[in-house]
Amino acid sequence: MISETPRIGFIGLGQMGLPIAGRLMDGAVAMAVHTRTRAGAGPLLDRGASWADGPAGIASASDIVFTMLGYPEDVEAIYLGPDGLLAHARPGQIFLDLTTSSPDLAGRIAAVGAQRGVAILDAPVSGGVPGARAGMLSVMVGGDVAAFDAMRGLLSRIGSTIARFGGPGAGQQAKICNQIVIAGTMMGVCEGLSVAARAGLDMACVLDTLGGGAAGGFLLKHMGPRIVAGDYVADFYVRHFVKDLGLALAEADKLGMDLPATALARGLYRRLAAQGAEGLGTQALARLYQPAEGEKA
User: Fold this and answer.
1) pLDDT tens profile 25-48
2) Using CA atoms, how far apart are residues 174 and 166, in angstroms rounded to an integer?
3) Which helix (H) or strand (E) holds 142?
4) Which residues of this protein are catalytic (predicted)?
5) Do 116 and 258 fall into the same domain?
6) 119, containing H or E segment
7) Catalytic residue set
8) Is residue 154 part of a domain?
9) Which candidate, 173, 138, 150, 52, places its Cα nearest to that of 94?
10) Are 4 and 30 in contact (CB under 8 A)?
11) How many other CB atoms are found less than 10 A from the CB of residue 133?
């Protein structure tokens, strides 16, 4: 049973994890944290969070644990490793993985959790760093209904759209759909703006006009001006998007589906990463359409 004033644990205080954990702390909860370096937890430690040396410490100090990690192999190690969360879990705890990861892995983790009396929710998010800071993320959840209902209050601190899609792994499947749509849309935004620039059109006018019509949408509105300005600072890293598109293609293969646009997008992002851009934002795809050195624009 989770108390009315639960102790929260958080593992993974990177670009997304830090603002998400900060919003959870805004609810005046007691929080234990762990991330790759203690310095990375500094802003939360300064606010009163306590440091744990690893997953075992987080599990023992917490009633509810959130994780926001980079890759499925990180998730597997943190949850299923010999010194991971589930090795030190106790009945009645709830663990929520916010990482974009494998649906199959989410199912495996949930099964091990059930054996130990621990509810596991896969709860990947969308909205990027701005959404994390504002508490306006979209949260896609898979797992036990009762655990989901119990976590709604906490999830509402980080998200404005929260939905459960089914059992373990369903949240990850929904997030895969999200990434597929983003991939195709980002290709269209980058190609459209690149053609406009090469044609010598007024780019401010292009953004305003396209945004007012059927082409308007989140990516054009938020990333379009940054693409035009050559601002490729990451809200979401190219390297993580390559991972996500790989997960999408693997899930599609499992479902017997062919996703040619998603395959093309992964190929383009792999090429971009190979050019040294893996630490840039996904809008850096526009770099592939820029004139080569010495080529007339």
Assistant:
1) 997 679 999 999 999 999 999 999
2) 10
3) strand 137-142
4) 175
5) no
6) strand 119-122
7) 175
8) yes
9) 150
10) no
11) 16
